[in-house]
Amino acid sequence: MALTDDHVQLAACPACVVVSPSDRVAAIRAQAARIMLSLPGAEGAGAISAVEGALRAFPGVRSARVNLSLRRVTVEAEPHLVAADLIPVLAAVGQEAHELDPGLLSSTETDRQGRALLMRIGVAFFSMMNIMLLSVAVWSGAEDATRDLFHFISGVIALPTVAFCGQPFFRSAWASLRQGRLGMDVPISLALILASSISVYETLHSGEKAYFDAAVMLSFFLLLGRWLDHRSRALARSAAEELAALEVPRAIVLDGAKEVVLPIAEVAVGDLVLVRPGGRMPVDGVVTAGTSEIDRGLLTGESLPVFAGPGTVVSAGEVNLTGPLTVQVTAAGRESSLHRMADLVAVAESAKTRYTTLADRASRLYSPLVHLLSFSAFAFWMWKTGGDIRYAINISAAVLIITCPCALGLAVPAVITAASGKLFRKGVLIKNGTALERLAEVDTVVFDKTGTLTMGAPEPLGLEALPAEALPVLGALARASAHPLAQALAARLPTTPLDDLREVPGYGVEGRLNGALVRLGRAEWVGAEALALTATYLSLNGQTHAVAFTDHIRPGAEAAIAGLRAQGIAVRLVSGDTEAAVAAFAARIGIADWVAGALPAEKAALVQGLGAEGHKVLMVGDGLNDTGALAAAHVSISPAQALDAARVASDIVLLGRDLSAIADAVFIARQAARRMVQNFGISAAYNVVAVPLALVGAATPLAAALAMSLSSISVSLNALRLRPWRS
Length: 727
Known about the structure:
Radius of gyration: 32 Å
Strand content: 15-25%
Number of helices: 26
Shape: elongated
Number of domains: 4
Helix content: 40-55%
Number of strands: 26
Largest sheet: 7 strands, mixed
Strand order of the largest sheet: 14-26-25-24-15-22-23
């Protein structure tokens, strides 16, 4: 596609108003085009090589790089190339692609926080091992100058380690204190500072005991818990951002006889926009010229394209299939239906982030109690010993260390990590840190139909019942159309030569066989009586033949529904498809409670309504039309084959095609919730035994650190006791 003065992408920036169109064209020509495409069906290393190989072989492409975790490919190309040139290239290698607007996607940052935590864990572990070796000599009876030397060397290693490795806790504690709160990191920071300070004091005064090993051991276990918590949250991304990026970034605006490509931000209400076959609607509007069929599956979940002609209302994101359409704009950019859906997702996501974890709730009560106990111990022993501040601080530090919420900090992340690993091996990826806790509370599951409970691909029925001479004619007509039903036929049938083949937008395909007119398409167009099923119709030799279609149930769908019901969970079906199609499918799969013809906002409203009634809803969906409901649900799941926006809006992703893992996920989540509560019980029981010992002076800071470590190990081992729903 050549870049001309009449066919140019204009930049949406304030400075551009002072630059002439010809200057803008020259500037654009001097730059490489950066094209980003979503690949919702990409799986495995084979997809990477196929996509990158096909794109790099295409003239004008300089480089192509696939990010399989995000299911995107980024292409650097010559300025004249656009996404529409590359999408057919990917279709030829079996990869569906949608254009994304890079300007609306924030760059994916490297995991700096995770790497920093891992580096600190490594430093703490290395220091801990070296200090423990030095401590062995002290424990073995080293005295006087030898003991002081080992304490001094331990301090040289420990103090920089604690200062470096404790920064995540120190920063968080300081921020908490500035806001007038006692967060969990306040007692952690005090324990680290006190253990280090007492050790320095004992070393300078030739004391028998120093607790550098305790301070570094605390740092290691606390950092380990922090890293586990970070990993459980690392995959979460913003669905609203991804949705907005799916909007077509440009539109072809008709200016008299000229076609001018403008950014969506510059398209105004009342403009006439040309949408070619195969293109997505860039705006909301009304068709003023042309006839075609449009695929609304991305937005509404309807399995069949619908006719579009003058007067038809269309929405941004719908796909024009068969003929060019001229659309008068009624809403564009941030006012479009696609952006309103993104706003709906953003609101629901912000509400979901207010969910408080069990650990957060426990820490609100735990932190003040820790400080109170430590201060009380200090005050009591100052009074009891007549002002022996050294002894009182030692006991106060032991109390603070032994009550340090390390086990509490590990209680939830350890379970989430263990459960996430077990579910990942079953093909379930947990994206959100609180998803398991929310999944354990679910009492209602709402399934989407097309693409979720079904494979989302039409399958023809009864081809063997058609006359043998009709099959090659049917195949030849089907190959001449881009309609999804025609494509399903074309892949299965032989062909015969036909004359004058042409597609009539919105109606079907026609041609001539030995001079006689043959047609494939809508019932009224070919003169057939329409069936109640999804079907297309063939007119041949004065007779009409109907070809009905079905959609295969996704593997494991029945097992998932049975498993959920066995756990006492209600199952509902909501779809944007027609009432007849939904009713037939619901009866086939055994779901009595269903809703048909639901628009995206209606799906979200249904889920929100169930939530308002006190239900904890799990939403399972795969399409752009499901994103509002996915974000509004208490917790949500999408298949890996779903559109990027649906996967991003979801808390959990099914990596395989089998839905039976959903029942496992709920069962393991409920087990995980019980393990979290048990871990809090272990932590509480440990404190009941250990705290009195520290209060009476029977536990040194080192013994306190060892006891704290033992409780952390117990919590981690308990987290591993998880099993799936099915053996």
